[in-house]
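Fold this complex.
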Amino acid sequence: MKAETHKVARLHAILWGIFSLGGMIAAFLLPVMIYLTGIAYPLGLWPLNGSRDPSFLVTGTLLGMLFVFVTIAGSLFHGIFRFQSVLTEVGLLRLKRGLETVGYLIIFVGIILLAYYLLVLNPSLPAL
Amino acid sequence: MEDNKRYPELRRRLSPGWWTANRHYAVYMVREWTSLFVALYSLTLIYGLSLWAMGSRADFLSFLKNPAVVGFSLVALVFTMYHAATWFYLLGAISPVKIGRSTTKPWQALVLNLILLVTVSYLAIWLLVLR
Amino acid sequence: MSQDIATIRVTRYRPEKDAKPFFQEYKVPYRHDMVVLDALNYIKAEIDGSLTYRWSCRMGVCGSCGANIDGEPKLTCASFLHEFKGRTITVEPMTHFPVIKDLVVDMQDFMEKLVKIKPWIIREKETPPEQGEYKQSAKELERYSQFSSCINCMLCYAACPIYGLNEKFLGPAATALAYRYIEDSRDQGKDVRFPVVHEMEGVWECTLVGECSVVCPKGVDPMLAIQKTKILGATNAIKSLLMPRGGR
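Structure:
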């Protein structure tokens, strides 16, 4: 029993490490991502005023594809991981196991779908 | 903790509204709820990409132009910026650096990292859009 | 001859008599240099001898007199009456602990956690005294010095909502003390302490509320200790993943 819990704790330590990395990504990369796709493009603001559109992010370059993947995957992991604990702190502690299962499922499916869509939209994987 | 006492101890349970008790706790809760917007925006963008991958580029672009999506993006950006600011502050709090006789303060890490954020953002725009 | 009066509202809980706790108000003469402990002592000596609370050194070094004063975890001996708004001050037992009587809380949980982290220097091999003392530079001392100031007053546990929600959480003081020994250059007990701090209810429950460091009366930063311990845990876990039989 002791060895089992030790393994779980070690896994959790690694997941925490990924969560921390996700936090860095969400802090440094997500703002510009949201700005470009969510605000600059729809409202025609710099740097997407004029004819440029945000599809460049996906079909333009490998760099763009990587940027989207790293930013969204990292932010998704971080957000879900942290929101799970928030929910346990506002009265849902008893549902901790269930919340964790649902959370990791969303993360797993989300990242797989993200990778899949990015590959579908970039079948030739153009060079930098 | 064996209960060999003759009289019952008073056990007080924390209510789900515990964080309203003082300002520090409330600010903490707001900070943690930024994670919801970070997660929701990510899921929204994955959904948008699915519209393109399964449909057409026009589907994705019109999704982005939907006023509800723009409104949500604005809210998400505000919360993401708050996440970034509080994250930078925490980075400063957990890595104090001793320089000579004095130690760095968290607000200094906040300022430094905000400058870094602006730099990285401009770099991203340059590499992805302007080039 | 008008005397300045302060009203002290104290939680009373006498398990042999009361099913529920209630507040009792006492009027004490107010002096500018009075601390809450002085008021409690006045009450016990002059008004109501049954009022029960812990105290000892009355100067902020023993850690006995913790309580929630106007909602904040503080030492009663270190809280001047003039710090609080108005002349009515509410004194309750430290939050998150079971109450034995009045302001006296059951500390057993913390005591067990304290023992669990083994708060003493652990050596693989003790060198005999003839070989001299274990030397430590000022820089090495600085790595853990602040964490050794802990007086075990448990105000940090009273402030920590994570501990309030989950009693199994190792908590601020125990982790800070474990970290104090982990960072002590004379200590060689990482193998013994790491499993304790890195278990599921060890450091991982902490979500950086940070109140522990705010309320500590001795300037210990348990939040910092917990974060550093998390980083140690994550790096160790990744290392053991990459080098299963590898180096330490």
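Chain A has one domain: 2-120.
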